[in-house]
Amino acid sequence: MKILISNASDKPLYQQIKDQVIDAILKGELAEGDPLPSIRGFANDIKVSVLTIRRVYDELEQEGFTTSQVGIGTFVSTGNVELLRDSKRHMVEKKMQELIDTAKTLNITKEELNAMMDILYEED
Amino acid sequence: MLLHLVKKDILIAKKYVLVIMLFIIAFPLFVTVVAPQIEGLISFLYIVALGEIVLLQVISQEEAKYPKAAALLCASSYPRSTFVKAKYTFFLLLFAYCYIAYTLVMLVVNRAGVLDLTAILTVLLVGVIIYGIYIPVEFKFGAVKARFIFTIAILALALGPMLFTDLFANITIDFSALATIPASIKNIVLAFVSIAVFSISMMVSIRIFSKKEL
Amino acid sequence: MDNILEVTGLNKSYKDFSLTDVSFTLPEDCITGFIGVNGAGKTTTIRVILGLAQKASGTIKVFGKDMESSEQELKNRIGIVLDEGYFYDELTMDEMKSIIAPAYSGWSDKDYKEYMDRFSLNSRQKISTLSRGMRTKFALTLALSHGADLLIMDEPTSGLDPLVRSQLLEIMTDYMKPGGKGVFFSTHITSDLDKVADMLILIHNGKILFEKEKDCLLDNYRLVKGDSKSLNNENKKLFLHIQTTDFGFTGVTDKLLEVQKSMSDILVERPTIEDIMLAHVEGGQK
Predict the structure, then answer these.
(1) Which residues on chain C place their C-beta less than 8 Å from a C-beta of chain B?
(2) Best-predicted range by mean pLDDT among B149-158, B174-183, C49-58?
(3) Would you say residue C286 lies in a domain?
(4) Per the confidence metrics, is the pTM higher than 0.90?
(5) ipTM of the complex
(6) Touching, A vs B (3+ Cβ pairs under 8 A)
(7) Residue C25 lies in a domain
(8) C269 chain-A contacts, CB cut-off 8 A
(9) CA C130 – CA C195 distance, rounded (Å)
(10) Which residues contact B158 (CB under 8 A, 6 or more apart)?
């Protein structure tokens, strides 16, 4: 699994990590039932705080990507991943985020963006 | 725990402790040979008073050189009260050593010089009074001020037997006036007062030290 | 997740300095950096926690238990590394150990020897002959050899060369591995915290200015650089602190979006912990 953290990015650290873990799961690099690294080991290796990794793991579990067993560890959840892989919602969110980022750098306001989306959406 | 803190006091002033220990053996011998008139109670009193006060001062001096060390010990799970009790335990142990050393020397040199219980308890009381005042003063005001007061006392003690033999002769007369009281009563009173002063002093010291900033 | 250390409402007054309402919490499994400039109150706070100075008011709980009522039991589980001059210099390390070890029920001579080896310390050496770095290593050895669950350290890395500092930080992270432990260390060298800290607590003039997760701090604050002419009375308020020179301004803000809206042509970077700390300290002085 490749996790690269960018200091230059505007995205919060935990978000970057979480997104890349989800990527790895959806692409199959982390297979169903595979264990995730220990919180402390993971934190040490990528040089972030344990609290951040804990938040990532908590959110991954909440969103159904992983399950954790006390004392044993956190594992990629089985059965769910198919559903989640098919969940376009995540991909849509990703695309929307890219859209918003680009819009901001071009100083396009939220209202203008919504207006553009209304127009484009109707064109289907 | 207690004994380890006593050991600490001895460790930090190792060399001085050794010297004084030897002195405590040497002095009675010296007295027997050179100044037999102050043999017995006076001689024993001298080694106890000197030993206790000098060692106490030397240990306090070493302690004062490294004040943070005491802080580290009190930040560990050594209770502050044990820190204080160790000083008092040291007093008792040193007293026991003085008595044993003195008695052994006397047994070898001059059996008549071996002390009776009343003499021992009298010296104990004097020691307890001196020590019992000194320690709380030191905890409260620090080693330097306490030492100032008592250095003067030591000087008087050192010169005492030599210069004021008349005075001591008078004291001997005083003691013989008390000789009419049965020894057992004297012993009980001496022991009781010793224990009382010792305990009160220890409680006061513990109180003072518990509030002290380290 | 339990709290290893809970400090509530600590107050302590000296003639020239006071701790005012100091409160913070150390969660389990975290390395917490206690930062502040010299004289901010870091050492005083630690001394009060360890009972070396009496507090005027407030509570201190360790492992959920009150320090005042369970002092000996709790101190038994705490490893301490204090700033300079905490040993009897005339003793050898072994002699000093023989005094400290009996205070702790969990003392392990095996651990002691392992650490002494790891640090290349000769236990028969007199403490007065040790360099600063070696003294700190020895203090760490003592602190780590009795199964402590909480390490409290006051400026452990100051005066140490970068190699020794890095070794120390590595030991801190190793220490945390088994879990259920906590480390609380004060420092004014913020680069060490960048590497190992999970939580940061900033103290200044005896008051706590913030208590935040390090990554959150780095996520929420930004360093903004731009033309001094872009500054006006309105947007100045968005910054925690601004420094202006003839060539532009540098400011620290947690309201990046608003700043971006109110001025253009700016450079945005992630700040270091030092930037954030100084901004809080200097900004507070307005």
Answers:
(1) 47, 50-54, 71-73, 75-76, 80, 82, 84-91, 95, 98-100, 102-105
(2) C49-58
(3) no
(4) no
(5) 0.86
(6) no
(7) yes
(8) 8
(9) 28
(10) B50
